């Protein structure tokens, strides 16, 4: 069977443009930004941003929603976020070298805890995955998967909601671009991220990727997984 390389080449061309990749990286935490915000972030004019956004929407990489005079855009789904994260890792993307106190704080915050589409990344995300393995909730042999205890644990964290009805992979390791090790992706990663936020253990401001762990979160995550969040926070 002959495989047509043209669709692959077209997709690669979309990511080859620095402005489009800047936009995609800005959206990797899964939240929606307006076209104007993305134009300012990418340092291009609104018409230029609109042209790039239209291409990304047409290719199925971004989804859009209109509210009043604003157009909000986000990544089309976890598979797109995974692709962008993989490209960034393959390209050897590094954390920006701090040039000011504020930049240093932002860089450290991203390295400690951030979102990767709808799951936790950074030292916290990697630490959660490691702790799940240590507690027998997650097995890595023959492909990562929840153990029977892990199934019960995840259902409890989700408030009893069944996750087996989703077609999304339950567990997917996602290579972390700051830690160079996997953090927990897939549906399980999304449940953990949502569960922590719903309990007030983590907080995240609008249009900011980094995640703050509250004092309640320090205690709650320690009780839930035996994970010392303070040690992760100070591990620079």
Rg is: 19 Å
Indicate the overall shape: globular
Helical fraction: 40-55%
Domain module count: 2
Biggest sheet, in brief?
3 strands, antiparallel
From the N-terminal CA to the C-terminal CA, the straight-line distance is: 51 Å
Strand order within the widest beta sheet? 1-3-2
In terms of structural class, how would the helical and strand content be classed? alpha+beta
Order of helices and strands: HHEHHEEHHEEHEEHEEHEEHH
Low-pLDDT segments = 95-101
- Average pLDDT taken over every residue: 85
Number of helices: 11
- Beta-strand portion reads 15-25%
Number of E strands:
11
Architecture overview:
50% of the residues lie in helices and 15% in strands. It has helices spanning 6-16, 18-26, 35-42, 46-58, 78-90, 101-112, 122-134, 148-157, 186-198, 215-225, 229-233; strands at residues 33-34, 62-67, 70-75, 114-116, 119-121, 138-139, 145-146, 172-175, 182-185, 202-203, 212-213. The protein has a three-stranded antiparallel beta sheet with strand order 1-3-2. A hairpin with a 5-residue loop joins strand 6 (138-139) and strand 7. Helix 2 packs across helix 3 (35-42) and helix 3 (35-42) crosses helix 4 (46-58). The termini are far apart. Residues 95-101 have low confidence and may be disordered.
């Amino acid at each position: 069977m002959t495989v047509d390389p043209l669709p692959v080449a077209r997709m690669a061309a979309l990511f080859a443009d620095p402005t489009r990749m800047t936009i995609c990286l800005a959206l990797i935490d899964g939240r929606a930004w307006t076209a104007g915000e993305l134009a300012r972030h990418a340092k291009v004019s609104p018409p230029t941003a609109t042209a790039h956004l239209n291409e990304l929407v047409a290719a199925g990489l971004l989804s859009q929603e209109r509210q009043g005079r604003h157009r909000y855009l986000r990544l089309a789904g976890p598979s797109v976020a995974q692709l962008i994260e993989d490209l960034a890792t393959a390209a050897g993307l590094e954390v920006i070298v701090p040039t000011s106190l504020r930049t240093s704080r932002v860089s450290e915050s991203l390295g400690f805890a951030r979102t990767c589409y709808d799951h936790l990344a950074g030292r916290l995300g990697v630490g959660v995955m490691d702790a799940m393995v240590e507690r027998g909730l997650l097995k890595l042999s023959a492909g990562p998967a929840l153990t029977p205890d892990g199934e019960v644990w995840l259902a409890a964290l989700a408030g009893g909601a069944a996750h087996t009805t989703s077609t999304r992979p339950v567990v997917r390791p996602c290579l972390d671009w700051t830690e160079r090790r996997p953090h927990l992706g897939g549906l399980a990663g999304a449940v953990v991220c949502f569960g922590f936020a719903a309990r007030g253990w983590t907080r995240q401001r609008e249009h900011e990727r980094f995640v703050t762990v509250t004092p309640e979160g320090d205690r709650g995550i320690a009780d839930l997984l035996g994970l010392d969040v303070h040690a992760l926070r100070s591990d620079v």
